[in-house]
Write a structure and sequence with these properties.
Layout lengths: L4 H13 L2 H5 L8 E6 L3 H9 L18 H17 L1 E2 L2 H5 L12 E2 L1 H14 L7 E7 L5 E9 L2 E5 L7 E2 L6 E6 L7 E5 L12
Parallel strand pairs: 2-3
Antiparallel strand pairs: 1-9, 4-5, 4-8, 5-6, 6-7, 8-9
Helix pairs in contact: 1-4, 4-6
Length: about 200
């Protein structure tokens, strides 16, 4: 099924880039609404305590990626490689604790670990950190989940270990809770979701 990623990605890119007017009139919101400042997840705080160099990047200016065909292919390649390579495992099974964010150096990890690795690989490939934002969402059943938001001039796209395809944020069925800000990765902001609440969604 994952072999269809390249085809799906190409199709998505063509639809988005076929014409600016079409993208502008799309009923799907391209960008999520930002709210007030929010406390960073405890997993991020502990990750930074263990990896201070990873969290000491200087404040930067907001930067959105220009989503060229090459950029999309690079994004799809890295997303697919991480999803295919890392074996999903819970933190409790992996580390014996409820929550631990870390790079999946041993080839295993949960959602946050996928996100951290994708983010690092994209930065190493030359992508601006300010456009790669760790994001906390809620699944339909209310469970917490982490994804990577990639801010582009064509909208905000989601890299997700639970989905092979890269999707526009408003095409997912998640409720968006909070994420890193573009100017400072250690400052988080709550998110407003303009989409109507789904009948099957729950919160806790």
């Amino acid at each position: 099924m994952r072999d269809s990623l390249k085809i799906a990605a190409a199709g998505c890119f063509i639809v988005l880039c076929a014409g600016g007017a079409q993208a502008q009139t799309s009923p799907r919101p391209l960008f999520v609404s930002l709210g007030d400042a929010s406390r960073p997840p405890i997993g991020w705080i502990e990750f930074c305590a263990d990896n201070p160099r990873e969290c000491s990047a200087p404040r930067g200016e907001p930067r959105d990626v220009v989503l060229t065909n090459k950029a999309w292919k690079d994004l799809a390649r890295i997303n697919k490689w991480v999803n295919d390579t890392i074996k999903p495992v819970t933190d409790m099974d992996h580390w014996g604790v409820v929550e631990k964010w870390s790079y999946p150096e041993d080839g295993k990890g949960d959602c946050e670990d996928y996100v951290l690795l994708k983010r690092r690989m994209l930065i190493q490939a030359g992508w601006p950190r300010e456009a790669l934002l760790i994001t906390v969402v809620r699944e339909r059943n209310g469970d917490g989940h982490a994804v990577l938001t990639v801010k582009t001039d064509k909208g905000e796209f989601i890299l997700d270990n639970q989905h092979p395809d890269i999707r526009l944020w408003s095409d997912t069925d998640y409720r968006f809770v909070k994420r890193q800000t573009q100017f400072d990765q250690n400052v988080w902001v709550s998110l407003g979701d303009p989409r109507p609440l789904m009948a099957t969604a729950t919160s806790r």
